[in-house]
Amino acid sequence: MTFLIIFLCIAGLVLMITWGKINPFLAFLIVSIAAGLLLGIPFNKVIASVQFGIGDTLGSLVIIIALGAMLGKLVADSGAAQKIASVMMKAFGVKYIQWALVVTGFIIGIPLFYGVGFVLMIPLIFSVVYQYKLPAVYIGLPMLAALSVTFGFLPPHPSPTALVVQFHANMGLTLIYGLIIAIPAIIIAGPLFSRTLKNIHSVPLETFHGTSLPEDRLPGTVSSFLSALLPVVLLMIATLVANFVSPATSFGKVVSFLAEPAVVMLISLSVATYTLGIKQGSSIKSVMSTYAESVKDIAMILLIIGSSGALKQVLTDSGISQEIAAQLNHVNIHPLILAWLIAAIIRICVGSATVAGLTTAGILAPLILQGHVNPNLMVLSIGAGSLAFSHVNDSGFWMFKEYFNVSIKDTIRSWTMMETIISLVGLAGVLILNIFV
Description:
The chain is mostly helical. It has one domain. The chain contains 20 helices and no strands. The chain is globular. Keywords: Cell membrane, Membrane, Transmembrane, Transmembrane helix, Transport. It holds the Pfam family GntP_permease.
């Protein structure tokens, strides 16, 4: 009976978001309360469970995600992203123009949220298409593959960051493993796969041609690259150093403090405030205004993540999570494959990669806490599954279709297949890493 209740709640969540067009935050909230009551949590304790779940989930995430949004907004508004793109184009030349876009998308995708990165990169893609008279989908898809991989696999993006916290994984190790998997996923789903798409007819709409800052107003090359990549560099250095230093020593304690993702993001934002703000002639007031605007963009993301934590907490407090974990122990499927499969199914039904990842985490959290699988790899497996088969219920699908002005058939053939290839390569990479770690 309990499993039937869980199935009905998940099905209800999916239907509310897809068919009913209910906001995911409200859908999670309603389903969490209904699940708590149906699973036997007393009336006077259901709301407390929901509130605790939201607070517990957001408590360790708000700082990281908010600071990440501020950094991304500054990188975009200051012209640093444009500068990075310009430098990469000059470095690779026309012959390897696809690879220039791939590397640019990857670098810019690390600090920027996917939607922001998508819109920001579209003018660059179209300018290359018109300047060199190349097929738009063939040129643009590799860059979007790089953006998608960073969004699904790598902290400090919301979903992987939330999964790291829920599974008590190591942010630095997850990032390192994610980078290892990201490279082949981008290459296969981007430049290699796009070779089969040269014949797709695409005439990008004039409406979507963006404006760019003049060259003399752009920040320097070093400042642009340093500001965008500093969170990754600091996390990797701190993680590597921590492996050679005892945490009991004074130096070890300092390293552990500096390795905290919130501290890393705060340091990175402080550096960027100077290099991309004050140094460029912007006042502190205008930089702070940029940061305030950035937080508005992530308010709903934070609410969705928090409400997913409510469902997880209800499942935990009712005791059903432990029952699910016990039953999954007897399922003859590797936990990493099971996680990918559940995330992929929810993604196909709901359309949102973030919702798919967080819902899967709530279901499988007890399995991770029992130590049956590497939590860092579980984050990546769920991240890979949450990208599978993007179709008509995903906003990214429609953004690609409308910006590139292609048919639904060609969107499925290009965009949907690209996302699915990333998902499958990601799973393969996780399983290979699992052999060695």
